[in-house]
Amino acid sequence: MRPIYLSYLTAPVDDPFEALRIAADAGYAGLGLRLCDPATGMAASPLVGNPTLCRRFAASLKDAGLSVPEVEARVLTRGPDPQIAPEVLEAAAMLGRPCVIAVADQRGVIEPTEVRDRFAALCTEVAAFGLEAGFEPIAHRAAGSLDHALEIVSGAGPGARLVLDALHLHRMGIGADRLARVDHTLMRVFHLCDAPPIPADLAGHVDHSARNRLLPGEGVLPLSEYLRALPPDMPVALEIPMMRMQETVPPAQRARMAIAATLALLEKECRS
Description:
It contains 10 helices and 10 strands. The chain is an alpha/beta fold. The strands form 2 sheets. A 5-stranded parallel sheet has the order 2-1-10-9-8. The protein has a 5-stranded parallel sheet with strand order 3-4-5-6-7, with helices on one face. Helix 1 packs parallel to helix 2 and helix 4 (112-127) packs across helix 5 (146-154). It starts with a strand and ends with a helix. The model has no long low-confidence stretch (mean pLDDT 95).
């Protein structure tokens, strides 16, 4: 069975120990964290700047048998190089050296060539802390194609990683046959979710991307085909924001719903 991780947006909570409890109780192999504000690179977690708390959290991870494969980190935009506060990277390095994920700003704000340069600078920055950086192409943002993403990652050095998301692959028009031809050694984890049909407007794309996705099996994404195109041991991270449920369904329940739907999908794949 593939390892299944809980991405931050599926059950966003400020307390990392609560997030850890949610992931452990629901049966995840690990969890993603948001250590800093993606727009500014400044601290957004109590773990940052607190080595004692980081050590306690790392011990709790080990006791639970969980890991942190990725941290959400930075929006690459025009202007000064996308610096991340050093204490953010110090905290990440204490948590098992997760991949630091970056995405590009909106189209028109930054050009793909600038994204390439900013990402290369970010790779250099995080490498000083023994970390890797991952570029995630967002279909409605700058450099929002698989070809752009591969160019950006291949030009950024050995510590660069590719982060692919089922929603954005579908919105880019990428099928399973193309995914199968990607160099999977560049990837550490695949982001899994489901989604409604492609919307006609940018507002709909943004809503599906950042606020409201569907559980696996509830939408139109070719998830079974994508999974068959990936190595059988490739981990998946469930990135399924469900802001429509924010006032009615607690994060722990959303996390349980997400993994239950994913396990049902994987079991179906095993039988087919």
